UniProtKB/TrEMBL annotation:
Its cofactor is pyridoxal 5'-phosphate. Pathway: Amino-acid biosynthesis; L-cysteine biosynthesis; L-cysteine from L-serine: step 2/2. It catalyses: O-acetyl-L-serine + hydrogen sulfide = L-cysteine + acetate. GO terms for molecular function: cysteine synthase activity. Its EC number is 2.5.1.47. This is Cysteine synthase. Keywords: Amino-acid biosynthesis, Cysteine biosynthesis, Pyridoxal phosphate, Transferase. Belongs to the cysteine synthase/cystathionine beta-synthase family. Coiled coil: none annotated. InterPro entries: Cys_synth, Cys_Synth/Cystath_Beta-Synth, CysM, P-phosphate_BS, TrpB-like_PALP, TrpB-like_PALP_sf. Residues 6-282 form the Tryptophan synthase beta chain-like PALP domain.
Amino acid sequence: MSNTILDQIGNTPLVEATAINTNPNVKLYLKLEGNNPGGSVKDRPAYNMIKSALERGDIDNNTRLIEATSGNTGIALAMIAGIYGLDMELVMPENATKERVQTMRAYGAKVTLTPVDTGIEGSRDYAEAKVKDEGYVMINQFANDDNWKAHYKTTGPEIWRDTEGKITHFVSSMGTTGTIMGTSTFLKEQNPNIQIIGVQPDDEASIPGIRKWPVAYLPKIFNPKKVDQIIEVTETEARTMTKRLAKEEGVFGGMSSGGATAAALKLIEKLDKGVVVAIICDRGDRYLSSDLFDK
């Protein structure tokens, strides 16, 4: 029987949140994506994007891969690329947490840090220049259909199965938007009445993993018709809920998870009944060198 690390991607736990949910007529479930072997929801698309590209012959062991990332996708790509023996360079802003940089390097990837003031957009510009001028191949999570298809094939079906088809609302932070696009596509096929809620930061917020993209950088895989409602959260709301999740529910996630849960609670306050599922994107231990869990 074959049972590799790749077989451990997906089928993450779905747990009920009981302490923070104050509406007795609504069930709130949290999908713990930090239980993936690479520690985040991004293991799913990283595996599907690399595996599918290899199967199509788009890349091989001589390909120099490059990708801009805010962190979790990079870690997942580093892990998957290492398993397949692929050359991977990851590019991200130099204010990325130390844990993320070290983890990518541990998996064998080259890490390039770009100036903070240009943000992830600057990282994307750097990677695109390497593709144009030096023959690198970009995974391109922002425009790669294998990103959202990973969630269509795995995340959506798991949520449908584990809620026994009773889910009424799905809440997900939006970064590359792969999670919400793929999960929405699957769930809407099962029941068009399921409401898909995207989470974005307000204009003043800086929340790792959640973005409100400038039009020029909007992910090409994003289809606004697949999102029924967008709820904005402040940085304070995301930070506070991240700490509450750890202290009250024993769920140790990052700030994007706190943001998604804060949005879910805003939603729940207005519901008469329902079954709400929110994505906990990753684990909190990759933020310990930041100020997220400071008093």
